[in-house]
Amino acid sequence: MKPIRVLIVDDSATVRRLLSATLGREEGITVVGEAADPYQARELMVKLDPDVLTLDVEMPRMDGLAFLAKIMQHRPKPVVVVSSLTPRGSEEAMRAYELGAVEVICKPGSAYRVDELGPQLARAVRAAAAAKLLPRLAPAAGTPAVKPPLLSRTTNKVLAIGASTGGTEAIREVMERLPGDTPGTIIVQHMPPMFTTQFAQRLNLISRMRVAEARGGEELQPGLAFVAPGGHHLAVVRSGAKYLLELRGGPMVHFQKPAVDISFRTLAAAAGANAVGVVLTGMGHDGADGLLAMRQAGARTMVQDEATSVVWGMPGSCVQRGAAEKVLPLQAIAAAIGDTLAGMV
User: Fold this and answer.
1) pLDDT digits (tens, 9 = 90+) for 174-232
2) Is the pTM for the entire model greater than 0.85?
3) Out of 83, 84, 164, 263, which one is annotated catalytic?
4) Fewer Cβ atoms within 10 Å of its own Cβ: the N or the C terminal residue of the chain?
């Protein structure tokens, strides 16, 4: 296979050297150029035609988000955005996903140590190289969706959604369409700390459900959805008639923390046939074992199809393992969730 050709765009010479050296040690990845600003990057894109760009957000002359918007409009390329782990950086990360970035990683020293940067950056670049640049979904409205009153009744039903590469926009598409009385829901998206906080806040703006980042100890109830926090695994445990959320430590699973497999396996044990599991677009195999465990426990399962997935790694692995009861285009998944939940006792 041809090596993945990468152009690095960052105003810091130190960061450019670090990223270039880090990727230079990875098999199958070649850094073909470095640019100090978007104007230089634009010239090198025409000259070198790289497969993937890494893009800093804060740069002189033109900020990274403005350049990203221009790239996606005039010369679409898979882009990995490099952002700081700060409130502003987290907001910029969400905006980068909306504009079409395939992956967002943290600058060294923010979420990961320099020695941890290599695996994170390499996986992001490989995911970007494998990604399909699909037409952008319509952006979510900036005003909060109307939230119905929380139901006093309880239900045994639980919904679980897992995703990775391309998942922020895919999850948004599903959550926008789910009704406000949807059973208690957990969402596992591969993201570092603070990015998941901002992601939950964004989802809360557009969803009829109330969405928050899980802190541990919450009870799953109709109308409530919880996002697994970066840096923690999210488990579902049974306490009498209640489903409670539990944050867990431990090592990364499939190089991820939170991992979809952890959440889905615990949900299979806690809820059995009362659960619905959904795996959306994503690089790798996380979620396949967990979704299979759910199906074997009697849960209903579905995955996003290849045509509408940015990367069909995770859902494709579910299909290969026999974990997926249904394979559906993204736009049909919310309705299928509703129909499935309505048909469950």
Assistant:
1) 999 999 999 999 999 999 888 999 999 999 999 999 999 999 999 999 999 999 999 99
2) yes
3) 164
4) N
Residue whose token pair is 């969402």? 187
137 part of a folded domain = no
Residues of the domain holding 300: 158-343
Sign of CA dihedral 214, 218, 220, 224: negative
> Tens digits of per-residue pLDDT, 18-52?
999 999 999 999 999 999 999 999 999 999 999 99
Give the residue from 260, 315, 281, 283 showing the smallest Cα distance to 170: 281
239 is catalytic: no
Q: Which of 51, 75, 54, 55 is nearest to 1 (CA)?
A: 51
Whether 265 and 217 map to the same domain: the answer is yes
CATH of the domain at 19: 3.40.50.2300
**Residue 24, in any domain of the structure:** yes
CATH number at residue 194: 3.40.50.180
Q: Which helix (H) or strand (E) holds 93?
A: helix 87-99
Pair 188, 49 in one domain? no
Distances (CA, A) of 173 to 139, 177, 206, 279, 335: 9, 7, 10, 14, 11
Question: Active-site residue among 10, 56, 190, 254?
Answer: 190
Q: Is there a catalytic annotation at residue 254?
A: no
What is residue 142's three-state secondary structure? coil
Q: Of these residues, 10, 56, 286, 289, which one is catalytic?
A: 286
- Please give the structure tokens belonging to residue 326: 């249904």
Q: Is 20 labeled as catalytic in the residue annotation? A: no
pLDDT score recorded for residue 209:
96
The DSSP annotation for 6-71 comes to EEEE-S-HHHHHHHHHHHHTSTTEEEEEEESSHHHHHHHHHHH--SEEEEESS-SSS-HHHHHHHH
**Residue 142 predicted with pLDDT over 90:** no
Farthest-apart Cα atoms in the chain, separation? 64
